[in-house]
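Field: sequence (string)
Field: structure_tokens (string)

Example rows 1 and 2, in order.
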Amino acid sequence: MGLKLKYEKPVTTARPDDRGRITLGSSLTKDVSRYDVFVDEMTGEVLLKPFREVPAQEAWFYKNDQAQKLVAEGIVAAKDSKLKKINLKKSSWIDDVEDDQ
């Protein structure tokens, strides 16, 4: 596997407890819900790949390329101060946004 590390110097050191567990500390686990663990069979080096879980009601966004494109365009427009006022009370406001495309 040959791990390629960005830093040659350790971020921290840790010793396993009597049950073989290693605590990473809050700075390495903040906003992380799980890690995939990879072990190099030749050297025994361990790589932890952190993951953040997405709430089920938000998962659709990551599967919808069009929604991601619109959000990215909105962020660029906001940065460029090119904002458009819309009436949120109007039931078909989304149609106006789509018509502008």
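Row 2 begins here:
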Amino acid sequence: MVYLDNNATTPVDPRVAEKMAGFLKEHFGNPSSLYPIGRKAKEIVTESREAVAGFLGAHRSEITFTGSGTEADNFALSGVLDANPDKNEIVTSVFEHPAVLETARYLEKKGVKVSYVPVDKTGLIDLDFLRDAVTPRTALVSIMHANNEIGTIQPIRDVVRIAHDKGALVHTDAVQTFGKIEVNADKLGVDLLTVSAHKVYGPKGIGALYIRRSTNIRPFLHGGHQERGLRAGTENTSGIVGFGEAVRILADRWKKDKDRIEKLADRLKTGIEEKIPKVRFNGHPEKRVKSTLNFAFPGLEAEAILLALATKEIYVSTGSACSEDSDEASYVLLAIGLRPEIARSCIRMSLGRFSTDEDVEVVLHELPGIVEKLRKISAFDPLP
């Protein structure tokens, strides 16, 4: 099997699975309980919180565990607005993850004014538009650190300067950069930041929201006192333990992994561009997460390529896993100016820790023939 869809989810690292299994067998106590087995569970949860915080350059009190990256995004937007009733505006971009876009659309229905910042053909946001969009009534600016489909990295420090000058808070969804490039909340200057365990070889069902101390935010889930009263509900202790272990492994090896994965991705990109005529690369040539590769194959349907690759046990995607069921062209690719027929021809490959030289060679051996065969039977001619 050649798995090249790490942006959708990563395999759980065996060391993470082992750590979680041991915890499940030995520690069933509720972290809110005062007796020893509860206190032991709380202690282990705290250790994981410290691991996540340390990797983000934060204090453990600034990390709130959530059920997913999506929940963390929802929490950031809704929680800030609820805490600032005198401000009824937010600013985001046209190609955020659905977790942010759909929350923004929901808030619009409740009377919140939402401004959507456009992007250029490489996926970079328009900072001049952003500057004009942020007003004294803006509660929050939410711009993702890097796009999940094309990998373009946004100038978050510039976003922070613009927003803070107008008194607005800044949230960034860093799910696709966490563990791939440096993600230091303090250096970025953001007030809120989203991460997720299953994108860094940890379990699904656990994410975290960094909330800078002194940030005014209201609880998203109501009930008990868990997570310092910000997120009610008995903690997903095994998931938190897995998240902590995944981050501890990251801390030891992410830079080494990054160099190796980027070299593999460069080989794959160069090989595809050399072996397949009229292929188009999407994304910024330099300012991007280099393990993410998005290509257009004009004249073809991406789904046909994906299914043909799957018969060879090569697994890629056509875009965000959160919108794979849609028959429409990717809104991300439309936002960077691709025509619908070109956007529907795009596939995304995303490499990770367990990607190998052999994986790259297999793809470069199989993909050119698949594209050539599909083009011969296609009803459309490849565009010049």
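free_text_note (row 2): The chain has two domains: 2-7+254-368, 14-249.
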